[in-house]
Design goal:
The structure is a single chain. The strands form 3 sheets. A 6-stranded mixed beta sheet has the order 8-7-6-9-11-10. It has a 5-stranded parallel beta sheet with strand order 2-1-12-13-14. A hairpin with a 4-residue loop joins strand 10 and strand 11. The protein is an alpha/beta fold and about 290 residues long. It starts with a strand and ends with a helix. The protein has 2 domains: about 170 residues, HAD superfamily/HAD-like (Rossmann fold, 3-Layer(aba) Sandwich), CATH 3.40.50.1000; about 110 residues, Hypothetical Protein, Haloacid Dehalogenase-like Hydrolase, Chain: A, domain 2, CATH 3.30.1240.10. Helix 2 runs parallel beside helix 11 and helix 4 runs antiparallel to helix 6.
């Protein structure tokens, strides 16, 4: 199979556990791009945070961000922009505030969250992320519901961090029963995402593929999270990081090294070194047909 697009998840795949890029990543991406392969990033991160990583890699590609709710190569001209309505965002927050959780509204231009403390350094580790660019405003308020009543927001995505697994499961069940028209995604650890109906990382890559004329079976995707399983199972070659949960590895066609052992770089060079440049293949096919 000839692959025409490489999609790499950011956290836990492209980045090491310290938040820095793996050694040799840019060179590996340059290597595969020289073969004519389109390289993109797909992520639950906000667009500006994902774009910051893309710029370091010299990628000007269309990025799949906010778990598929915001697909674009620039902040002002998105290819796809999906949102929960202002009313839906408010109603979801009203329900979530009955649980022990931190709620973060992830807009493409800002973040808004509540101040509830769940435990030692939890907010610092999850809600307050060093990945957010300095020009991406982050505001915390005492009551998110009260703030949204006065200043409504239509959210592309809502991130929720729970105090424990049981609280997460209770909230998942409640949200799914009360809101049938949203996509609730269980992620690694005590975290969930709430997205507009029909929005997902997989759907985001499908939309990008349609835009570029590339089928899912012509894609390679590298991921590490529970919410990457659908992507890994659906593309032509699904790759799991060694640091991924067992369920992710079982879904994959290929398991590479961990993110702290340059797993993305290793996979790219091991697989794509065997693939001829796409321009060469096109010319070769033309010659054989003639």
């Amino acid at each position: 199979m000839i692959y025409r697009l490489l999609a790499i998840n950011i956290d836990g795949s492209l980045l090491r556990s310290n938040g820095k890029l793996q050694k040799g990543t840019k060179e590996a991406i340059d290597f595969v791009r020289e073969k004519g392969v389109y390289v993109t990033l797909y992520s639950s991160r906000n667009f500006q945070a994902a774009q910051k990583i893309a710029k370091v890699l010299k990628l000007e590609s269309i990025l799949v961000t906010h778990s598929g709710a915001f697909i674009s190569s620039s902040l002002d001209t998105p290819l796809v922009q999906r949102r929960l309505s202002e009313e839906k965002t408010f109603n979801l927050v009203q329900v979530l505030e009955h649980f022990e959780c931190n709620i973060r509204i992830s807009h493409e231009r800002f973040s808004l969250g509540n101040r509830r403390k769940l435990g030692s350094n939890l907010i610092a580790k999850t809600v307050l992320s060093s990945a957010d660019p300095v020009f991406y405003p982050i505001q915390f308020v005492e009551s998110l519901g009260d703030t949204l009543r006065d200043q409504p927001v239509a959210a592309p995505k809502i991130d929720v961090f729970f105090s424990n697994k049981q609280e997460k499961e209770n909230a998942l069940r409640t949200i799914r029963e009360a809101f049938s028209d949203v996509n609730v995604v269980a992620c690694n650890g005590e975290r969930i995402e709430i997205l507009p109906q029909g929005v997902s990382k997989l759907r985001g890559l499908q939309v990008l593929g349609d835009h570029l004329g590339i089928d899912l079976q012509e894609m390679v995707a590298i991921g590490d999270s529970i919410d990457d399983i659908e992507v890994i199972e659906s593309v032509g070659l699904g790759v799991a990081m060694w640091n991924a949960p067992v369920e992710v590895k079982l879904a994959a066609d290929w398991v590479t090294r961990s993110n702290n052992q340059s797993g993305v770089t290793y996979m790219i060079k091991e697989h794509f070194r065997k693939q001829f440049p796409l321009d060469f293949l096109k010319d070769h096919i033309k010659v054989r047909r003639w």
